[in-house]
Amino acid sequence: MSEVAKAVKPLFDKFIDFFDIFDLSFFVSGVTFVAAVAWAGMTPRLGELLGIGTGAGLDAGDIPPLGVIVLIFASYISGMTCFAVGRFTRTKLRKGWATLRNHPSRLITFEELARHGVLVRHEDISPRQTTTWWTLTAYGEHLPWLRRYVHGEDEQARSQAEQARNESALYVRMWAELRQREGLSPSFVLLRRYWVSAATLDGLFIAALTWVLVLGVEGEWLPALVTLVGACFALYEAGRYDRYQREELVATVLQSYDLHAASKPSETGPQVEALGAASERPEPAPQADQPSAPAEPAASNTPGET
Question: pTM (2 decimals)?
Answer without folding.
Answer: 0.69
